[in-house]
Amino acid sequence: xxxxxxxxxFPPETNAPASRTHEHAKRWVAAGHRVTVVTGAPNFPSxxxxxxxxxxxxxxxxxxxIEVLRVWTYITANEGFARRTLDYASFMASAIFASxxxxxxxxxxxxxxxxxxxxxxxxxxxxxxRPFVFELRDLWPDSIVAVGAMRDTRLIRWLRKLEYFLYRxxxxxxxxxxxxxxxxxxxxxxxxKIAVVPNGVDLDIYRPGPRPEDLxxxxxxxxxxxxxxxxxVGMAHGIGTLLDAARALQGRTDIAFVVVGTGAxxxxxxxxxxxxxxxxxxxxxxxxxxxxxxxxxLCDVAIILLRDAPLFRHVIPSKMFEAMGMQRPIILGVxxxxxxxxxxxxxGLTIPPExxxxxxxxxxDLADNRERCxxxxxxxxxxxxxxxxxxxxxxxxxxxxxxVAGEGAGRQS
Length: 413
Hints:
The chain is of the alpha/beta class. It has 2 domains: 2-200 and 389-408, Rossmann fold (3-Layer(aba) Sandwich); 213-387, 3-Layer(aba) Sandwich (Rossmann fold). Helices cover 44% and strands 17% of the residues. The chain has helices at 16-30, 81-98, 116-128, 142-146, 154-169, 178-186, 213-219, 239-248, 266-275, 289-298, 319-325, 337-345, 356-367, 370-387, 390-412; strands at 2-6, 34-40, 58-63, 66-71, 107-111, 132-136, 172-175, 194-196, 225-230, 255-260, 281-285, 301-305, 330-333, 348-350. The strands form 2 sheets. Strands 3-4-2-1-5-6-7-8 form an 8-stranded mixed β-sheet, sandwiched between helices. It has a 6-stranded parallel β-sheet with strand order 11-10-9-12-13-14, sandwiched between helices. α1 (16-30) packs across α15 (390-412), α8 crosses α13 and α11 packs across α14 (370-387). The longest helix is centred in the C-terminal third of the chain and has 23 residues, at 390-412. The mean pLDDT is 91.
């Protein structure tokens, strides 16, 4: 089977869509399938092209047996609605333009959160007469409204109509949460066409190891209890709550907060921490995928936050599973399905979203009880291996693609 996968993000980018696509696709190749990924030059989230790449019209490469075609896009940082929309739209146009020059696929897959990429997959499916699968990672454009980037205007309502048009046109929708499926079925999408394949963790890559003491010394956190946020520092993530908790814990010289990652809010938050004299907060910025594991091993507890918006009750942050794989306890400030998972796993503590006092108390409690930290981490690693192993998730999604491709071939014959 030849799988054509359209995605805005792919390694060496390290965000959740890039990691999921890569980790799934390399397993599909190992299972004997051909996978072609169409993507752009790596630049997320800074808008700066990674070393060794350029924004060319057409560039081929191979990664872990995956055939990668990088096409030209308008490149901008992950901030500003208009420019990001132009970025998304340019990738849509380039992906559509490139598709006739590629070997004919058996199935076409496109991943969100933004749905200009699935829109491209729909057009390509018409041109190549093959079914397309919509991988649903976020409810976009509702997430734009949820973070306050836009009001619920006529444009948003038009985009929502386009979103549901694409859901109806897809041969299959693969959702990363049960909650997304419930939202879609409540709005008239047939439940039988929606499969749920959650995010997971590659337990061979994300595994516990010794604390990197050189890194601890470089950051000035040696012999401290480290509470770390690892991921995109965007409008949705509520990292201001972390700063407020750090302010409340300034008297605890044995505790440090480390923020790993970049995004639309990173520069402003780092400047706020500096001007307020929060010496117990370290902003690291973007790091490579291999380096991320060192930061997970450095931390004693993982902090996972989202803003207090109803939409985020449907979201499961993928960093939950990375933290579990790394055997790190979690403090989770998110309601809904992710909270249910953490409670079931007994791998951490839950707090109300955007509650800095609760965050500060939870960090202090775990700093005073290292044995409890170890026990929570062990439970998380065990739970991830049983329920959210990336190998199993990849094979589950492959089975859905094989069914879609088989049904598509039957209609063509």
